[in-house]
């Protein structure tokens, strides 16, 4: 239940506090006094759209704060805890602010929270209805939602399964359409990939082959120079009587080793040098052997050089198309082969998707038929329940019915078009609400629907903004009486301009502007009995002190009190 609402900087309201009570609370005031800002503030508090134009001129922001009592073990308390908020003795504090620049912020139980969470919690806390709701009720999608809500869990379970099947069917159908419409593009892509894979397969490059061939080509191109260098170095190391080289490193090293060998035992330092010369001798011997072997292996082979150059040219051509190195070319071929497998498998996948699409369509048809069956059955009960409520709202001869029309096309909610029809009197044909209902009748139809919902899917608090627009007289009295009866099951807050409705309230708040045109802290007053008489007199006759108006106001309060068993005229 809402205990208190504080509104700052919203429209004509500077800073005002509304102390709310259980039962039926009515808010009245002269035109332009700011009554509607109360409903606007409640809409903001529960996640409504933030309109910076609603911020009072000169104020930095509009702020709405609400205090609510909630069950500590209920779903609302659980979500508050999940968001990091806390309850204070079962009291939840919500705040919502909107800056003049349009920035919106919200807090929940002392912690910042997304505005969407406020809107989510509102489903369990409050139902706010304004004049715009009556216009929305004219839309067939809202009428379908109203019927589905009335059907409850029985329809919700089927609707959930249908929605899942519908989404999957759309996904499959979209994928299938994409694959079939892109068949030519896929075929062209496959041809290009297949040509590339075949070209690379025919060339059969090996990992690192390009680097190896480059080294071999360089060696073959310089074979003569390499062989002469190896021969010369070999002759320098070991000597060759047949050559012109007079240096013999091996012989010179042997002479040095022999000179040291005779005296090495006399000095360890000299012995160490002798050992190192021995090691040099072994290294020179190995180097000479390797040079001799290398000299024999180097062979100028013009045919092999031509073959290597031709192979390198082929690999270079592949590199220009598929990657700078043979490793890159091989990687491209591997990726292309995988993509080819996907493309070649698309035909098989298309067939699988067609089968799934047909299966999902059968599933949708089955569930859509079930939705139609439930809606058709519930429509009769829903129409009868709303018709019964209209009887209590001074429309005893009106009849509301629900027309369920099943089409061929599937939509997110099935194949049904739902339309509420109203026959205001027995001789009138049932017509859609936008053609068969006046403004006052539409107000009563909406109230009747909400009363029906209150029994089927109750919320703790109902807020109505001039739900009685366009009605008067006896109809207004019956609306007041029905709101009072609804208040026996829930908290009801009503902004009204009709004294017949206000008379049935348990608590009466009046909104008044100060001299500067603002609603201040003293501008929202809770009326006692005499205050209610004065306010009802003003609403009836336009004059607070009119004797006739006061007498009529007293009569209204007496009638309303008599309608509540055990009521002796509560304020």
Automatic annotation (TrEMBL):
UniProt superkingdom: Bacteria
Stretches assigned to coiled coil: 343-370
Database matches in CDD domains: ABC_RecN
SUPFAM superfamilies per UniProt: P-loop containing nucleoside triphosphate hydrolases
Family of the protein in this entry: Belongs to the RecN family.
Alphabetical list of PANTHER family matching this protein: DNA REPAIR PROTEIN RECN
Protein name: DNA repair protein RecN
Gene name per UniProt: recN
């Amino acid at each position: 239940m809402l205990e208190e609402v504080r509104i700052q900087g919203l429209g004509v309201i500077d800073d005002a506090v509304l102390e709310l009570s259980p039962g039926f609370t009515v808010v009245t005031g002269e035109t332009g006094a700011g009554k509607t800002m109360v409903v606007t503030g409640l809409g903001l508090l529960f996640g409504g759209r933030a309109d910076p134009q609603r911020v009072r001129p000169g104020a930095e922001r509009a702020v709405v704060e609400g205090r609510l009592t909630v069950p500590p073990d209920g779903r609302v308390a659980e979500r508050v805890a999940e968001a990091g908020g806390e309850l204070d003795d079962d009291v939840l504090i919500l705040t919502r602010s909107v800056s003049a620049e349009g920035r919106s912020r919200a807090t929940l139980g002392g912690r910042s929270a997304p505005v969407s969470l406020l809107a989510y919690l509102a489903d369990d806390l409050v139902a706010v209805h304004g004049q715009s709701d009556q216009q929305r009720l004219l839309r067939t999608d809202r009428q379908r939602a109203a019927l589905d809500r009335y059907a409850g869990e029985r329809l919700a379970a089927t609707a959930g399964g249908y929605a899942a099947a519908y989404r999957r069917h759309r996904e499959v159908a979209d994928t299938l359409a994409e694959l079939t419409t892109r068949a030519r593009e896929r075929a062209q892509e496959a041809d290009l990939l297949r040509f590339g894979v075949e070209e690379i397969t025919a060339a059969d490059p090996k990992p690192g082959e390009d680097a190896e061939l480059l080294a071999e080509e360089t060696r073959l191109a310089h074979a003569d120079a390499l062989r002469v260098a190896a021969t010369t170095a070999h002759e320098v190391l070991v000597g060759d009587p047949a050559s012109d080289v007079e240096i013999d490193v091996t012989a010179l090293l042997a002479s040095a080793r022999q000179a040291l060998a005779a005296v090495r035992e006399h000095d360890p330092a000299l012995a160490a040098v002798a050992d190192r010369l021995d090691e040099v001798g072994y290294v020179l011997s190995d180097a000479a052997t390797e040079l001799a072997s290398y000299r024999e292996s180097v062979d100028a082979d013009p045919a092999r050089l031509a073959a290597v150059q031709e192979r390198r040219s082929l690999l270079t051509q592949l590199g220009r198309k598929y990657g700078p190195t043979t490793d890159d070319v091989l990687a491209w071929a591997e990726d292309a082969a995988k993509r080819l497998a996907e493309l070649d498998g698309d035909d098989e996948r298309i067939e699988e998707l067609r089968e799934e699409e047909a299966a999902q369509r059968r599933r949708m048809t089955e569930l859509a038929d079930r939705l139609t069956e439930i809606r058709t059955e519930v429509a009769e009960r829903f129409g009868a329940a709303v018709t019964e409520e209209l009887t209590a709202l001074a429309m005893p001869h009106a009849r509301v019915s629900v027309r369920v029309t099943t089409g061929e096309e599937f939509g997110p909610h099935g194949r049904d078009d739902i339309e509420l029809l109203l026959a205001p009197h027995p001789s009138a044909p049932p017509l859609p609400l936008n053609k068969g209902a006046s403004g006052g009748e539409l107000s009563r139809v909406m109230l009747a629907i909400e009363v029906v919902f209150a029994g089927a899917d109750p919320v703790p608090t109902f807020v109505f903004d001039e739900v009685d627009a366009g009605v008067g007289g006896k109809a207004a009295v019956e609306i007041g009486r029905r709101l009072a009866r609804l208040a026996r099951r829930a908290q009801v807050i009503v902004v009204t301009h009709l004294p017949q409705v206000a008379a049935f309230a348990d608590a009466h708040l009046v909104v008044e502007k100060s001299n500067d045109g603002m609603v201040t802290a003293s501008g929202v007053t809770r009326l006692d009995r005499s205050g209610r008489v004065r306010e009802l007199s003003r609403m009836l006759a336009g004059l607070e002190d009119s004797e006739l108006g006061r007498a009529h106001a007293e009569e209204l309060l007496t009638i309303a009190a008599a309608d509540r068993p055990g009521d002796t005229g509560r304020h």
